[in-house]
């Protein structure tokens, strides 16, 4: 309701969000593949267990790093889905907290932003 975006601008953001979604999905697929590919299988087949302990440490570190990336990207992906849902609902561009308009430059920087800058800062301050 409080959205000040013109329909054409909403279209632009929809396009932007869809592109982001496609890119993140591609990234996630690739990272998930890579994270899972080198795992020893859980069937108890010892031939798949890595022999060099030094390598195991590095691989675990990489895996953890990849998994945290996946988690981050999954979170962003969720927010992109939410933003696309808000576009369909006609509430895109309105702050979820105060219902005020989210500034356009902020949306251009973070098209899936759910909060206006004031509410985002408030949230950061209070955790
Ligand atoms: Zn707000």
Count of helix runs: 4
Low-confidence stretches: none
Mean pLDDT over all positions = 85
Note the overall shape.
Answer: elongated
β-strand amount: under 5%
Bound molecules: zinc ion
Note down, in words, how this protein is organized.
The protein has one domain: Four Helix Bundle (Hemerythrin (Met), subunit A) (Up-down Bundle). The chain has helices at 7-37, 53-89, 104-109, 117-126. The two termini are 28 Å apart. Helix 1 (7-37) runs antiparallel to helix 2. Helices cover 66% and strands 0% of the residues. It has four helices and no strands. With 127 residues, it is mostly helical. The mean pLDDT is 85. Bound molecules: zinc ion. The site of zinc ion has 8 residues, from helix 4. Zinc ion (ZN) binds next to helix 4.
List keywords for this structure.
4 helices, elongated, single chain, mainly alpha, 127 residues, binds zinc ion, Four Helix Bundle (Hemerythrin (Met), subunit A)
Quick recap of the structure?
The chain has about 130 residues and is mainly α. It has 4 helices and no strands.
Topology readout:
Layout: H1 7-37, H2 53-89, H3 104-109, H4 117-126
Helix pairs in contact: 1-2
The structure holds zinc ion.
């Amino acid at each position: 309701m409080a959205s000040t975006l013109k329909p054409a601008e909403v279209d632009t953001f929809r396009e932007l969000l869809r592109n982001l979604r496609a890119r993140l999905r591609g990234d996630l697929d690739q990272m998930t593949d890579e994270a899972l590919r080198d795992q020893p299988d859980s069937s108890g087949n010892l031939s798949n267990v890595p022999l060099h302990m030094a390598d195991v440490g590095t691989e675990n570190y990489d895996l953890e790093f990849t998994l945290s990336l996946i988690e981050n990207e999954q979170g962003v992906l969720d927010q992109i889905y939410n933003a696309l849902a808000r576009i369909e609902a006609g509430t895109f561009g309105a702050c979820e907290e105060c219902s005020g308009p989210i500034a356009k430059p902020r949306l251009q920087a973070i098209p899936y932003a759910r909060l206006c800058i004031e509410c985002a800062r408030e949230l950061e301050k209070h955790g």
